[in-house]
């Protein structure tokens, strides 16, 4: 209860100056209406250093991303996972990202191009524009003096060669090598490296040694020579496929002279390989190890390794283990691994679920384009996306994606310049007029996305009521 003096003082003040405090009754309203009381705000961005991707849909701010600039501050790892169904803009994002990164002098990019049309990979136009000749791995062309990559290239360490041979065999067999087969491979590899010094050893030498092992290798383990031959039979049959089977010509000779590993962009064109065959993960393993030992060097360059159809890596336990080591090793030397996958279920439900989880954990950046509702919910559970992001993913239109950069989640519209457009939208079936229509469709999609976003906010945030004094 107030004292009489205070009451008297307030009454006298009111008499002289009028009432100094206005009392208002509470107003009951909704958050949707009350939001007009507050100034517009936007979540902080990722900084202003790096390459521009586009703009944030909700705030309109420019969206800039660079794993090398963010690493160690906002990113625990520079690796990136891109998800989404075909036709929503993944390919355009990858290509413009690479083109913009290459404007920095200390950047270098390797692309495993597993898709293509008209007999060339879809990165062919960009390679031509930059004066780069793609490394086209084609069994038919290899037979006619095409590109070869030698798993026994002296540029690869002896330990790396043996690890690569084991991975090739395990991928083809679908299971790990037992001790006896592993021993037969090891002694054959050691003998070939010790005795062939006047040229590059090749796979044919390994196969021949497995078929006809040296007596010394049997004597060293106190076993019969026929036993050693039997232990290496399955290994020889698998390697024979690379020598005289459907993959012959690409790996059974010395590495092709003239492959420029110092070029700003290196494109491995795998479009002539059946993507659904066992050949693709074998190719991924060979290229991955070959690059690890010949391309990644401590020269202070920032390198990007972009893999199309990356489920060929993540869905094979043996190839996934190999790339997991490459990612850990490459992080110390400035390597950013970019994996492009259509559906997360392609990998998390596969034979290499454990290895896939480890690789996904290392990807601190995740970009998700439109997916069906059930796929979006599964993706959200695996990646730990917020509920609002999961609900909006099925409504996304082409060119718009949810970006999760180590917990910083934004909806981003990817922008393509007129200079980039002819290199990025490379569908040969499109005419010039249809390209113009595609441009109009992108602008329409942008407006539609903004309208949907506003409706989403109104529906989910405007239903709850609050009391405003």
From TrEMBL:
<dbReference type="InterPro" id="IPR051162">
    <property type="entry name" value="T4SS_component"/>
</dbReference>
<dbReference type="InterPro" id="IPR027417">
    <property type="entry name" value="P-loop_NTPase"/>
</dbReference>
<protein>
    <submittedName>
        <fullName>ATP/GTP-binding protein</fullName>
    </submittedName>
</protein>
<dbReference type="Pfam" id="PF12846">
    <property type="entry name" value="AAA_10"/>
</dbReference>
């Amino acid at each position: 209860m107030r004292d009489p003096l205070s009451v008297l003082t307030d009454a006298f003040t009111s008499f002289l100056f009028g009432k100094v405090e206005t009392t208002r009754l509470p107003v009951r309203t909704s958050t949707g209406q009350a939001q007009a009381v507050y100034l517009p705000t936007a979540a902080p961005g990722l900084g202003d250093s790096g390459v521009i991707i586009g703009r944030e849909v909700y705030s309109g701010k420019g969206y800039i991303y660079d794993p090398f600039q963010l690493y160690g501050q906002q990113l625990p790892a520079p690796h990136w996972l891109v998800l989404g169904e075909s036709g929503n803009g993944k390919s355009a994002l990858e290509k413009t990202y690479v083109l913009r990164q290459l404007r920095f002098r200390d950047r270098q990019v390797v692309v495993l191009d597993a898709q293509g049309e008209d007999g060339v990979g879809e990165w062919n136009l960009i390679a031509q524009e930059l004066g780069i000749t793609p490394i086209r791995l084609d069994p038919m062309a290899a037979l006619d003096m095409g590109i070869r990559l030698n798993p026994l290239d002296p540029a690869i360490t002896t330990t790396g060669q043996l690890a690569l041979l084991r991975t090739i065999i395990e991928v083809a067999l679908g299971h790990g090598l037992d001790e006896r087969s592993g021993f037969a491979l090891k002694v054959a590899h050691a003998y070939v490296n010790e005795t062939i010094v006047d040229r590059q050893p090749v796979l044919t030498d390994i196969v021949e040694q497995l078929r006809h092992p040296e007596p010394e290798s049997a004597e060293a383990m106190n076993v019969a020579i026929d036993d050693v031959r039997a232990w290496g039979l399955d290994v020889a049959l698998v390697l024979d496929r690379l020598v005289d089977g459907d993959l012959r010509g690409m790996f059974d000779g010395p590495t092709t002279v003239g492959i420029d590993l110092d070029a700003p962009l290196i494109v491995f064109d795998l479009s002539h390989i059946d993507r659904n065959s066992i050949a693709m993960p074998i190719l991924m393993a060979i290229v991955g190890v070959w690059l690890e030992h010949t391309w990644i060097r401590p020269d202070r360059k920032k390198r990007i390794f972009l893999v199309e159809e990356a489920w060929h890596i993540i869905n094979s336990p043996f190839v996934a283990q190999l790339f997991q080591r490459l990612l850990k090793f490459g992080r110390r030397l400035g390597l950013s691994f970019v994996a492009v996958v259509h559906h997360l279920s392609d990998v998390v439900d596969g034979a290499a679920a454990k290895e896939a989880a480890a690789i996904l954990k290392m990807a601190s950046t995740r970009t998700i384009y439109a997916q069906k509702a059930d796929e979006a919910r599964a993706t959200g559970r695996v990646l730990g996306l917020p509920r609002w992001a999961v609900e909006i993913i099925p409504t996304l239109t082409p060119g718009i994606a949810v970006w999760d950069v180590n917990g910083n989640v934004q909806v981003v519209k990817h922008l393509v310049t007129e200079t980039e457009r002819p290199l990025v939208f490379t569908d040969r079936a499109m005419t010039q007029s249809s390209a113009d229509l595609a441009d109009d469709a992108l602008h329409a999609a942008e407006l539609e996305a903004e309208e949907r976003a506003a409706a989403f906010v109104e529906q989910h945030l405007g239903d709850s009521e609050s009391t405003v004094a």
